[in-house]
């Protein structure tokens, strides 16, 4: 890790936005930062004007740390802002271009997307969904996922989208936690040509969630599935018999828009709660200024709707700006490794937003693949989810952007709702490896344990010291965890991001990665404790410790240390496969450990606590440091040897 940090910091190459880009940029006033800082509430209040309100707010911000209320008294509807208000202006403009795995596609104009949303929203009401009811959406990248989200927000039912690749168990856990009585899923979908039996997976999970009353099923893959009487209903049947109109509900600014589950430092994922007004203001302006969204842009964010990036920059941000979005179901290497560039060419994508892990993979596949396609429509590139190493940044800039597209390296989190640190492409000097500066109105800092700012260039905790409109409001059903996790390290007005960072003399922030028990595997956020509890739920496992090992392509891969109930002797490799599959069954394929190391001991203190720092050093072959407080220092050498053997 340290090596990567050093190479990041040494990277001094600078890239200025071209004069042409600056001239046309939505935001090109370099003084915007000072202007925002001089009157932060006024700054956000001005931006709230880009959203349509049924009733204007009474107060911009009510800040009782750590509780913020934004635009209190205001009434609005997110689906109205994403759809209806654009229909009059450009109802025939494509809102959503969907490209399926089998190279089939569908386009919805703004009018069509609004109509489909209104009709499905009427269907939800017909089924008994009321304002405030949480609807769980367990759909892959199909247009119905977007329609479902917008239909929920239309009637004031918070949605909880569960990534379609999560297991039955993970679905059940999230449905239960949210007390969700309604689930939307599909019969199946294709992944690299294979049929995934999504309904079967949902059914299995829902056995453990008896409170679920209705399951709406999209017929996506035409596979035959059993339907449970009384509970299950086909999407098409539901919308067939309902009114085609459904007026958008007038929601309070602080009404919950959605819950998004994410991983933290315990075995249980947490439901991050986002509310309506502030979230819409934040995602609207960041889409507009950071992605420089224009009327004729074709914006492709490759993130899945199951993650926050899919919420903020596939759906709410771009649609509230009236942009055209591309949504792709499938993988970058199916049917071949040119798939993404094929889509860019096919639709003339102008803005492309993806994760460093994908960029590094493309780089490995070779320049000859993108070279076969016409990428000249691209004018802006984005990166999100993990630090982008300068080598990958430069490759992205030169090979994909042909040295003419600014790159926005955007740092943010599920909890922040919107991008927090990023270049503004019409203003900022880019430097490969840094997300550059906090967005106007955002106050970020690098602090030490006591809450003091660290000296320039030193590493420390990345903290946020101002409230912002799209900030997390609470953790669903666990207010104490909300306070303990984010607002307790230094006091209730300073937000702990969980990331380490450094700031250079130009004010650029260099994100160094997580400092807690969260790991990022191919940009997916996972909790080490979550994987540990999955492992120990297997009868052969007595104890487990999970760690991230630095990986050139994926950022990190999962390395699990397992103490067995009894020795596996000649069955070890069979058991290893079984345990990997067990984690897949408990969480999903994204959590599959890359390596499992069987051991009799773990590096623990005398009080029996695993020393994560030592484990991290063993996993990554770095300097171990002081191990005098370990119960049994010999375990270190033993584990180091085992890790080395596996490679
Ligand atoms: C990491 C994803 C470096 C970081 C939007 C953060 C990044 C976590 C960047 C949140 C970036 C995200 N540079 N690291 N540009 N963007 N991260 O909740 O560790 O899935 O805390 O949200 O991703 O992950 P999450």
Automatic annotation (TrEMBL):
Post-translational modification comment from the UniProt entry: Acetylated. Deacetylation by the SIR2-homolog deacetylase activates the enzyme.
Class in the EC hierarchy, top level: ligase
Alphabetically ordered keywords of this record: Acetylation, ATP-binding, Ligase, Magnesium, Metal-binding, Nucleotide-binding
Family: Belongs to the ATP-dependent AMP-binding enzyme family.
One GO term describing the cellular component: cytosol
Name this polypeptide is given: Acetyl-coenzyme A synthetase
Family annotation (Pfam families): ACAS_N, AMP-binding, AMP-binding_C
Residues with N6-acetyllysine modification: 609
Functional summary from the UniProt entry: Catalyzes the conversion of acetate into acetyl-CoA (AcCoA), an essential intermediate at the junction of anabolic and catabolic pathways. AcsA undergoes a two-step reaction. In the first half reaction, AcsA combines acetate with ATP to form acetyl-adenylate (AcAMP) intermediate. In the second half reaction, it can then transfer the acetyl group from AcAMP to the sulfhydryl group of CoA, forming the product AcCoA.
Obligatory cofactor(s): Mg(2+)
Residues in AMP-dependent synthetase/ligase domain copies: 83-468
Alphabetized GO MF terms: 3-hydroxypropionyl-CoA synthetase activity; acetate-CoA ligase activity; AMP binding; ATP binding; metal ion binding
List of residues binding Mg(2+): 536, 538, 541
Organism: Methanococcoides burtonii (strain DSM 6242 / NBRC 107633 / OCM 468 / ACE-M)
Chain ranges of the Acetyl-coenzyme A synthetase N-terminal domain: 32-82
Catalytically driven reaction(s): acetate + ATP + CoA = acetyl-CoA + AMP + diphosphate
Residue positions binding ATP: 385-387, 409-414, 499, 514, 525
Domain annotation AMP-binding enzyme C-terminal: ranges: 530-609
Entry's Gene Ontology BP terms: acetyl-CoA biosynthetic process from acetate; carbon fixation by 3-hydroxypropionate cycle
Xref: SUPFAM superfamilies: Acetyl-CoA synthetase-like (SSF56801)
Positions of CoA binding: 309, 522
Lineage: Archaea, Methanobacteriati, Methanobacteriota, Stenosarchaea group, Methanomicrobia
Enzyme Commission number: 6.2.1.1
């Amino acid at each position: 890790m340290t090596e990567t940090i050093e190479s990041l910091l040494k990277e001094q190459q600078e890239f200025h936005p071209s004069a042409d880009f600056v001239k046309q940029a939505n935001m090109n006033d370099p003084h915007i930062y000072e202007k925002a800082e001089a009157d932060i509430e006024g700054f956000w209040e001005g931006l709230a004007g880009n959203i349509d309100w049924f009733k204007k707010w009474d107060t911009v911000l009510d800040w009782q740390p750590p509780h913020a209320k934004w635009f209190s008294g205001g009434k609005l509807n997110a689906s109205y802002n994403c759809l209806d208000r654009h229909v009059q202006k450009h109802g025939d403009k494509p809102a959503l271009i969907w490209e399926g795995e089998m190279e089939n596609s569908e386009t919805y104009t703004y009018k069509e997307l609004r109509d489909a949303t209104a009709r499905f929203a009427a269907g939800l009401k017909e089924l008994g969904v009321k304002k405030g009811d949480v609807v769980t959406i367990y759909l892959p990248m199909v247009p119905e996922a977007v329609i479902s989200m917008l239909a929920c927000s239309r009637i004031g039912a918070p949605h909880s989208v569960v990534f379609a690749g999560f297991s039955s168990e993970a679905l059940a856990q999230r449905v239960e936690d949210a007390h969700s009585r309604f689930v939307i899923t599909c019969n199946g979908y294709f992944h690299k040509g294979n049929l995934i039996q999504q309904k079967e997976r949902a059914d299995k999970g829902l056995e453990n969630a008896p409170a679920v009353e209705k399951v709406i099923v999209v017929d996506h893959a035409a596979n035959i599935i059993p339907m449970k009487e009384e509970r299950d209903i086909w999407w098409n049947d539901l919308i067939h018999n309902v009114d085609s109109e459904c007026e958008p509900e007038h929601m309070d600014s602080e009404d919950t828009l959605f819950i998004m589950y994410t991983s933290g430092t315990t075995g249980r994922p947490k439901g991050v709660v986002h509310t309506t007004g502030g979230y819409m203001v934040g995602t609207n302006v960041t889409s507009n200024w950071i992605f420089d969204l224009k009327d004729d842009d074709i914006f492709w964010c490759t993130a899945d709707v199951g993650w926050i990036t899919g919420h903020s920059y596939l759906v709410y941000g771009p649609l509230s700006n009236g942009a055209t979005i591309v949504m792709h179901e499938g993988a970058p290497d199916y049917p071949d490794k040119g798939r993404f560039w094929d889509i860019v060419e096919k639709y003339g994508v102008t803005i492309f937003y993806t994760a460093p892990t994908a960029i590094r993979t493309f780089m490995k596949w070779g320049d000859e693949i993108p070279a076969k396609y016409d990428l000249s429509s691209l004018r802006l590139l984005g990166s999100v989810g993990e630090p982008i190493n300068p080598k990958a940044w430069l490759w992205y800039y030169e090979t994909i952007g042909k040295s003419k597209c600014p790159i926005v390296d955007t740092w943010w989190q599920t909890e922040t709702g919107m991008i927090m640190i990023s270049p503004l492409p019409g203003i900022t000097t880019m430097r490969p490896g840094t997300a550059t500066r906090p967005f106007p109105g955002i106050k970020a800092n690098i602090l030490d344990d006591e809450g003091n700012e660290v000296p320039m260039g030193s590493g420390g905790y990345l903290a946020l010291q101002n409230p912002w409109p799209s900030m997390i409001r609470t953790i669903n059903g666990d207010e104490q965890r909300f306070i303990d996790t984010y607002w307790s390290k230094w006091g209730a007005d300073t937000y702990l991001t969980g990331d380490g960072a450094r700031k250079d003399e130009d004010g650029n922030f260099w994100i160094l990665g997580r400092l807690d028990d969260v790991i990022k595997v191919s940009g997916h956020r996972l909790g080490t404790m979550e994987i540990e509890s999955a492992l120990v739920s297997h009868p052969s496992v007595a104890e487990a410790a999970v760690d991230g090992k630095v990986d050139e392509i994926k950022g990190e891969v999962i390395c699990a240390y397992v103490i067995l109930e009894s020795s596996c002797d000649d069955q070890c490799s069979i058991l290893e496969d079984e345990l990997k599959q067990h984690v897949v069954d408990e969480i999903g394929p994204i959590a599959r450990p890359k390596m499992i190391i069987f051991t009799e001991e773990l590096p623990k203190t005398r009080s029996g606590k695993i020393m994560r720092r030592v484990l991290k050093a063993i996993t990554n072959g770095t300097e171990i440091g002081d191990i005098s407080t370990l119960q049994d220092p010999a375990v270190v050498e033993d584990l180091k040897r085992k890790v080395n053997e596996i490679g």
